[in-house]
Amino acid sequence: MLVKGDDMKKLEKLNAWFDVSFDSLELEVFAIAKFSKTIKYLLIIENSWPEWVDSRYFKVLDESVPIYWISNKYNFFFKLKNNKYDFSIPIRSYMGPPEFIENSEFLFDIYDNPSKAHEFSIKVIEKHKEK
Protein backbone atom coordinates (compact mmCIF):
# COMPACT_ATOMS: atom_id res chain seq x y z
CA MET A 1 0.00 0.00 0.00
CA LEU A 2 1.33 3.43 -0.94
CA VAL A 3 0.25 6.79 0.44
CA LYS A 4 1.22 10.39 -0.13
CA GLY A 5 0.85 13.36 2.21
CA ASP A 6 -2.42 15.20 1.61
CA ASP A 7 -2.65 17.85 4.34
CA MET A 8 0.91 19.10 4.64
CA LYS A 9 0.31 21.83 7.21
CA LYS A 10 -1.43 19.55 9.70
CA LEU A 11 1.00 16.73 9.11
CA GLU A 12 4.03 18.93 9.69
CA LYS A 13 2.48 20.46 12.83
CA LEU A 14 1.82 17.06 14.35
CA ASN A 15 5.21 15.63 13.51
CA ALA A 16 8.65 17.14 13.71
CA TRP A 17 10.15 15.87 10.47
CA PHE A 18 12.43 18.61 9.29
CA ASP A 19 13.76 18.80 5.73
CA VAL A 20 11.26 16.18 4.52
CA SER A 21 9.01 17.25 1.65
CA PHE A 22 5.77 15.30 2.10
CA ASP A 23 4.11 16.67 -1.02
CA SER A 24 6.41 14.61 -3.25
CA LEU A 25 7.13 11.73 -0.87
CA GLU A 26 5.40 8.40 -1.52
CA LEU A 27 5.39 6.21 1.58
CA GLU A 28 4.92 2.48 1.95
CA VAL A 29 2.42 1.46 4.63
CA PHE A 30 3.79 -1.40 6.74
CA ALA A 31 0.66 -2.02 8.85
CA ILE A 32 -2.76 -0.50 9.50
CA ALA A 33 -4.48 -0.22 12.88
CA LYS A 34 -7.67 1.26 14.22
CA PHE A 35 -7.14 2.79 17.64
CA SER A 36 -10.50 3.76 19.18
CA LYS A 37 -11.98 5.71 16.23
CA THR A 38 -8.79 6.65 14.40
CA ILE A 39 -7.19 4.64 11.59
CA LYS A 40 -3.41 4.93 11.55
CA TYR A 41 -0.70 3.77 9.17
CA LEU A 42 2.60 2.36 10.36
CA LEU A 43 5.19 4.33 8.39
CA ILE A 44 8.95 4.66 8.37
CA ILE A 45 9.66 8.18 7.17
CA GLU A 46 13.15 8.98 5.85
CA ASN A 47 14.87 6.15 7.75
CA SER A 48 13.34 7.16 11.09
CA TRP A 49 11.70 4.82 13.60
CA PRO A 50 8.41 3.12 12.76
CA GLU A 51 5.57 5.44 13.76
CA TRP A 52 1.78 5.33 13.70
CA VAL A 53 0.49 8.30 11.69
CA ASP A 54 -3.16 9.34 11.30
CA SER A 55 -4.52 8.18 7.93
CA ARG A 56 -6.55 11.41 7.49
CA TYR A 57 -3.40 13.27 6.47
CA PHE A 58 -2.73 11.04 3.47
CA LYS A 59 -4.27 10.11 0.17
CA VAL A 60 -3.97 6.51 -0.95
CA LEU A 61 -2.02 6.01 -4.17
CA ASP A 62 -2.18 2.20 -4.22
CA GLU A 63 -4.59 0.42 -1.89
CA SER A 64 -3.32 -3.11 -2.52
CA VAL A 65 -1.84 -4.85 0.49
CA PRO A 66 0.65 -7.71 0.43
CA ILE A 67 -0.86 -11.17 0.18
CA TYR A 68 0.93 -12.32 3.35
CA TRP A 69 -0.74 -9.69 5.59
CA ILE A 70 -3.20 -10.93 8.20
CA SER A 71 -5.70 -9.05 10.32
CA ASN A 72 -7.09 -9.23 13.83
CA LYS A 73 -10.27 -7.60 15.08
CA TYR A 74 -10.78 -7.03 18.77
CA ASN A 75 -13.81 -6.47 21.00
CA PHE A 76 -15.03 -2.90 21.43
CA PHE A 77 -13.48 -2.39 24.89
CA PHE A 78 -10.32 -4.42 24.27
CA LYS A 79 -7.02 -2.95 25.44
CA LEU A 80 -3.76 -4.57 24.49
CA LYS A 81 -1.68 -5.04 27.63
CA ASN A 82 1.86 -6.18 28.20
CA ASN A 83 3.60 -7.08 31.46
CA LYS A 84 6.82 -5.38 30.37
CA TYR A 85 5.31 -1.92 29.85
CA ASP A 86 3.20 0.21 32.15
CA PHE A 87 0.46 1.18 29.69
CA SER A 88 -2.24 -0.39 27.55
CA ILE A 89 -3.32 0.36 23.99
CA PRO A 90 -7.02 0.55 23.04
CA ILE A 91 -7.02 -1.18 19.67
CA ARG A 92 -9.99 -2.21 17.50
CA SER A 93 -8.24 -3.86 14.54
CA TYR A 94 -4.73 -4.52 13.34
CA MET A 95 -3.62 -5.52 9.84
CA GLY A 96 -0.09 -6.23 8.67
CA PRO A 97 2.63 -8.86 8.47
CA PRO A 98 1.97 -11.84 10.78
CA GLU A 99 5.24 -11.16 12.61
CA PHE A 100 4.00 -7.71 13.65
CA ILE A 101 0.63 -8.97 14.87
CA GLU A 102 1.86 -12.13 16.59
CA ASN A 103 4.64 -10.29 18.45
CA SER A 104 2.70 -8.43 21.15
CA GLU A 105 5.82 -6.58 22.31
CA PHE A 106 6.35 -4.97 18.89
CA LEU A 107 3.32 -2.68 19.21
CA PHE A 108 4.54 -1.50 22.62
CA ASP A 109 8.14 -1.15 21.43
CA ILE A 110 6.99 1.35 18.79
CA TYR A 111 6.13 3.72 21.64
CA ASP A 112 8.56 2.74 24.38
CA ASN A 113 11.62 1.28 22.63
CA PRO A 114 11.65 2.66 19.06
CA SER A 115 15.14 1.41 18.23
CA LYS A 116 14.13 -2.17 19.06
CA ALA A 117 10.91 -1.76 17.04
CA HIS A 118 12.90 -0.38 14.11
CA GLU A 119 15.37 -3.26 14.17
CA PHE A 120 12.55 -5.82 14.28
CA SER A 121 10.51 -4.10 11.56
CA ILE A 122 13.48 -3.90 9.18
CA LYS A 123 14.15 -7.65 9.64
CA VAL A 124 10.51 -8.46 8.85
CA ILE A 125 10.38 -6.10 5.85
CA GLU A 126 13.62 -7.52 4.40
CA LYS A 127 12.41 -11.10 4.96
CA HIS A 128 9.27 -10.48 2.91
CA LYS A 129 11.11 -8.58 0.16
CA GLU A 130 13.27 -11.67 -0.42
CA LYS A 131 10.22 -13.82 -1.23
TrEMBL record:
It comes from the Bacteria. This is Uncharacterized protein. It comes from Oxobacter pfennigii.
